């Protein structure tokens, strides 16, 4: 019998890729993906019963209130989903590896190319809840935190990744404003899934940064996507984060990923390089088998 790994948030963007790619990248594990329909994670007794039933040998925790805007609008819901649920699951999983997906939004974004040892100073509710949860998770030496930033991918609902958001807006006849002074290091969901499986296999818990190898502005990202997504043509508008209204946004969340790179079975790609090499069949954001 294979050991069981539970993936929470299995109906979300990254959870879907983890479940789908497990036979390729984690064949020694039996994966039990939990969507919200399977289990509402705020229901404490139901969660405890599920953990007793599944008795997982490892947990990858992707469920979250993941949109900055939603967190800013309802800080109580953000804390419940991102801190209290995470605390509960990590406590139930105290004796096994537990990988918590966190975010570069724990940083203020003033500097960029952040390393794991850099001081985290969040500037929005989402980042604050993620940092609070990280500290609890890392209190257990068996547990890990993986900070990611901007994920390209294709979801079942078609409304999860930033590429999907852009294309949906363009299809609805809306302009897509992209800040030329906001920097990220995007990574395809397939690469994130493969890296997380590698990390679980490596058995080296701790805090890790996981992002693409190039730092691009939002505007540059849009320009690079344009040849592959004609629907965006004529819809991209160059903007500035200085004019942003809403939840505060860190300007530069590029991440230094040297630490996780040493554990990985593949080289973390840059976004532009990924787009050039992507296959014409299947999901462009999946990691190629070879
Ligand atoms: N995607 C990114 O660019 C990015 C960047 C930085 C960090 N992250 C982090 O990476 C993780 C995965 O991100 P993602 O993009 O896959 O997020 P996502 O698409 O929003 O998926 C999160 C999933 O969690 C589920 N969920 C939330 N609260 C729940 C609850 N109380 N009970 C059961 N299920 C619940 C959601 O269900 P519903 O759909 O029903 O709400 C959703 O399916 C998150 O922790 C996120 O904060 C993602």
Automatic annotation (TrEMBL):
GO terms for biological process: dTDP-rhamnose biosynthetic process. GO terms for molecular function: dTDP-4-dehydrorhamnose reductase activity. It catalyses: dTDP-beta-L-rhamnose + NADP(+) = dTDP-4-dehydro-beta-L-rhamnose + NADPH + H(+). The keyword Ribosomal protein does not apply. Keywords: NADP, Oxidoreductase. Pathway: Carbohydrate biosynthesis; dTDP-L-rhamnose biosynthesis. Residues 5-275 form the RmlD-like substrate binding domain. It comes from the Bacteria. InterPro entries: dTDP_dehydrorham_reduct, NAD(P)-bd_dom_sf, RmlD-like-bd. It is an enzyme of class 1 (oxidoreductase). Pfam families: RmlD_sub_bind. Catalyzes the reduction of dTDP-6-deoxy-L-lyxo-4-hexulose to yield dTDP-L-rhamnose. Belongs to the dTDP-4-dehydrorhamnose reductase family. This is dTDP-4-dehydrorhamnose reductase. It comes from Nitrospira japonica.
């Amino acid at each position: 019998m294979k050991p069981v790994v539970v993936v929470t948030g299995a109906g979300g963007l990254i959870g879907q890729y983890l479940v789908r790619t497990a036979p390729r990248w984690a064949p020694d594990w039996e994966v039990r993906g939990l969507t919200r329909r399977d289990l509402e994670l705020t229901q404490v007794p139901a969660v405890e019963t599920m953990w007793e039933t599944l008795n997982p040998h490892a947990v990858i925790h992707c469920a979250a209130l993941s949109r900055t805007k939603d967190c800013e609008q309802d800080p109580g819901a953000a804390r419940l989903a991102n801190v209290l649920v995470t605390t509960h699951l990590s406590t139930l999983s105290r004796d096994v590896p537990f990988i918590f997906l966190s975010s570069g939004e724990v940083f203020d974004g003033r500097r960029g190319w952040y390393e794991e040892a850099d001081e985290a100073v969040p500037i929005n509710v989402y980042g604050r809840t993620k940092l609070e949860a990280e500290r609890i998770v890392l209190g257990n030496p068996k547990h890990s935190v993986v900070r990611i930033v901007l994920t390209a991918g294709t979801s079942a609902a078609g409304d999860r990744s930033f590429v999907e958001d852009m294309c949906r807006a363009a299809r609805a006849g809306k302009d897509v404003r992209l800040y030329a002074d906001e920097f990220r290091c995007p990574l395809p969901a397939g690469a994130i899934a493969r890296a997380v499986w590698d990390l679980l296999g490596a058995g080296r818990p701790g805090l890790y940064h996981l992002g693409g190898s190039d730092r691009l502005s939002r505007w540059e990202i849009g320009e690079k996507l344009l040849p592959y997504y004609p629907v965006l043509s004529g819809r991209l508008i160059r903007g500035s984060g200085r004019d942003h209204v809403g939840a505060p946004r860190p300007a530069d969340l590029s991440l230094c990923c040297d630490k996780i790179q040493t554990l990985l079975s593949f080289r973390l790609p840059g976004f532009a390089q990924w787009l050039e090499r992507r296959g014409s069949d299947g999901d462009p954001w999946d990691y190629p088998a070879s």
